[in-house]
Amino acid sequence: MEHGGHDGEARGFFRSRANWVLIGFLVIGGFYLVTEHRAHLIPYLGYLPFLLLLACPLMHLFMHGGHGGHGGSDSSGRGSADAGQNQPHKY
């Protein structure tokens, strides 16, 4: 049995021990970054709700793949939101 090669089974991101170590280091580093620079971040916390609202179109772009990702219109007159309801996603 070969461990280093591709054995036909796709490995997920969270199955690798190295990825778990990377996530741990990023969490610890993020914690220390926030705690050490908390005094610099406090004045900007009032802008957080507005930044979250501004991030919505950006997240929509990444999550839905831009324009045309909602399916086409059909001849029954229903909107495009119902067009691909029973079909699996393309992503």
From TrEMBL:
Annotated segments matching region Disordered: 68-91
Family matches, as InterPro entries: DUF2933 (IPR021682)
UniProt superkingdom: Bacteria
UniProt key word Disulfide bond: no
Low complexity biased stretches: 75-84
Key words, A-Z: Membrane, Transmembrane, Transmembrane helix
Residues that span the membrane, as ranges: 18-35, 41-63
Official protein name in the record: DUF2933 domain-containing protein
